[in-house]
Design brief:
β3, α4 and β4 form a beta-alpha-beta unit. The protein is of the alpha/beta class and 358 residues long. The chain is built from ten helices and 16 strands. The chain has two domains: 116 residues, 3-Layer(aba) Sandwich (Rossmann fold); 233 residues, Dihydrodipicolinate Reductase, domain 2, CATH 3.30.360.10.
């Protein structure tokens, strides 16, 4: 539903999934949908080719469509999710899921009432690397007692990005870098803590701006600090103004784990992370910091492959659709992520005031 750039990646993921078929592409005009189909078919052909539809309403009325993938702008997404649920279509939504938690709650409740699956498009959640990471965290020997989580997701946007891209238009993507990038940082923090929610949040709006036709400004660079009742603290930085980085560091009483590509795995046939347990030794005048690193790797191709995380996202989603038994875990974690994101934005726009989470 829509012809966004990210959907081109998922065009291939659906083909590789093995349990889903791309039936149609909907756009505001049939001509635009047909052009989009032709462009993608030239590189990754589906057989038969999906048909072009000139309206989203026509898509939702189609009896041969079980589910819809919505890469539509966040600012307009809610109404189409509600319409899809009412039409009995399962929903895979891009992130951030809504403008605020109130919208996401409305979407989740509509899908629940209709008995359809709601899932957000965070691909790394479906990588085989996460179970390997969980095993290390739960072992008690790699990290020990968890104390700190830190993350950064950023890219250096070109000058024309700030004039042309929808991510700097408050009517289309009102959450800016926080919604586009910070969503992932918040999700990996919550995942690490088994979805324990923070008790307090402080954020700093480093810079906000908007393109010339934007009704208002959106976060461009933002940092945030969270405190959890378990004693863990966490921070993240998201920005359109720093080089490509997408790392998370999880540290505790015995060591730390570093993952340098937790959102978009570096190209290759494996995905991995490093467990570091440094040892500091002092013998009178001799001071030694010893590095003890262990690499944990999983056989999984980074992208454009049946084993890649984006393929597993669509495969897992289709499995739930085909089972007829929606898994409430997925909408629950979408709502939790949005609740934390809302608090981060509220604090940043209020001069860094501490926000207590109920």
């Amino acid at each position: 539903m829509g012809t966004a750039g990210i959907a081109r990646k998922n065009w291939q993921a659906i083909k590789n999934s093995g349990n889903g078929k791309l039936v149609a592409v909907g756009s505001r005009t049939k001509e635009r949908a047909a052009q989009y189909i032709a462009e993608n078919q030239a590189q990754v052909p589906h057989d038969p080719a999906p048909r072009p539809l000139g309206s989203f309403e026509e898509m939702l009325a189609s009896d041969d469509i079980d589910a819809v993938y919505l890469p539509l702008p966040t600012g307009v997404r809610k109404d189409y999710v509600l319409q899809a649920a009412a039409a009995g279509k399962h929903v895979l939504s891009e992130k951030p899921c809504g403008v605020n938690a109130g919208e996401v709650k409305e979407m989740v409740e509509a899908c629940g009432k209709a008995g359809v699956q709601f899932m957000d498009g965070v691909m790394f959640m479906h990588s085989d690397r996460l179970p390997a990471l969980r095993a290390e965290l739960d072992s008690g020997t790699a990290v020990g007692d968890l104390k700190r989580i830190a993350s950064q997701f950023s890219f250096m946007a070109p000058d024309d990005f700030f004039e042309d891209n929808i991510r700097v238009h408050s009517g289309l993507e009102p959450l800016g870098s926080l919604g586009d990038l910070g969503w992932y940082c918040i999700r990996i923090i919550l995942w690490t803590l088994n979805y324990e929610m923070p008790v307090s949040i402080r954020s700093r709006m480093i810079r906000e701006s908007g393109r010339s036709d934007s009704p208002g400004s959106v976060p461009i660079s933002l940092s945030s600090e969270m405190v959890f009742s378990s004693g863990v603290t966490a921070s993240f930085y998201c920005s359109f103004e720093a080089e490509n980085q997408q790392w998370v560091n999880i540290s505790g009483t015995k060591g730390h784990i570093q993952m340098d590509d937790f959102v978009l795995p570096y190209h290759g046939s494996e995905v991995s992370f490093e467990v570091e347990q440094a040892h500091f030794d002092v013998d009178l005048c001799q001071f030694h910091m010893e590095r003890h690193t262990r690499r944990v790797a999983v056989r999984e191709v980074s992208d454009s492959h049946p084993t890649s995380q984006e393929t597993k996202l669509f495969r897992n989603f289709a499995d739930l659709v085909l089972s007829g038994k929606p898994d409430l875990h997925w909408p629950e974690i979408s709502l939790k992520t949005q609740l934390v994101l809302d608090a981060c934005l509220k604090s940043a726009r209020d001069g860094g005031r501490e926000i207590a989470m109920s």
